[in-house]
Amino acid sequence: MGLDQSLYRTSKKNFDSLSASKKLSDEFKSQVAKLYSEKYKNRWESLPRDEYGHIDVQNLTNEQKDEFESMRKGFQSDRTSIASELNVRLDEYNEPIVDGDVGEEIGYWGKNWELHNYIIDNFWEDKEHDNVVDIPLTKENVEQIINWCTTGDNYDDYTEEIFKEALNAIEQGDVIYYHPWY
What percent of the chain shows pLDDT beyond 70? Predict the structure, then answer.
């Protein structure tokens, strides 16, 4: 499984704004999933599929085409209503727009599972949800990571250098956060 990881620095104001926007986006996605499950799933899944599992629009009966078009328009309308209620803006693909400045990327790793597991195990409370999250790191967290990556089998001069830069950024008043995605 692939893993990409970044370390960012940003102001507290930007981090708070970004976090609030992501929470709203997550709430929107949760409400849309619930809506789909309760109102559209059974009807949608009853339509004929092609060999790839897509709705076979070309071979729908007129009645099925009407049902398909009605569901498509209804679902879009319902999504838009939810977005409006939550004050979430949608992009051209009807996905929520996350507002906020992510800040400056100061480090990037690919597939450093040891570092990822260390950060998750020690500094993240939701062990079940550790993908595409922003994990703020304190000065003490960063010092522990520097100690971890400079001892024994964990030695990694690149990681040490990046986290020393992160420590300096924290001392200047910035927020440091780790962002993994896989």
Answer: 99
Query: ∠ CA 149-104-126 to the nearest 5 degrees?
Result: 60
> pLDDT tens across 11-27, in order?
999 999 888 888 899 89
CA-closest candidate to residue 46, choices 29, 24, 68, 25: 68
Position 94 confidence tier, pLDDT thresholds 50, 70, 90: confident
Specify which residues 110 forms β-bridges with.
4
The DSSP code for 102 is: -
Alpha helices in 4-61, H assignment, sequence order: 12-35, 41-45
DSSP collapsed to 3 states, 111-176: CCHHHHHHHHHHHCCCCCCCCCCCEEECHHHHHHHHHHHCCHHHCCHHHHHHHHHHHHHHHCCCEE
Identify the pLDDT of residue 10: 93
In contact, 103 and 137? CB cutoff 8 Å: no
Of the CA atoms within 13 Å of residue 27, those in its CB half-sphere come to: 14
First to last CA, the chain: 7
Q: Which residue has the tokens 């970044």?
A: 6
What does the pLDDT look like over 33-57, one tens digit per residue? 999 999 999 998 999 999 999 999 8
Q: Rounded distance, CA 76 to CA 39, Å?
A: 13
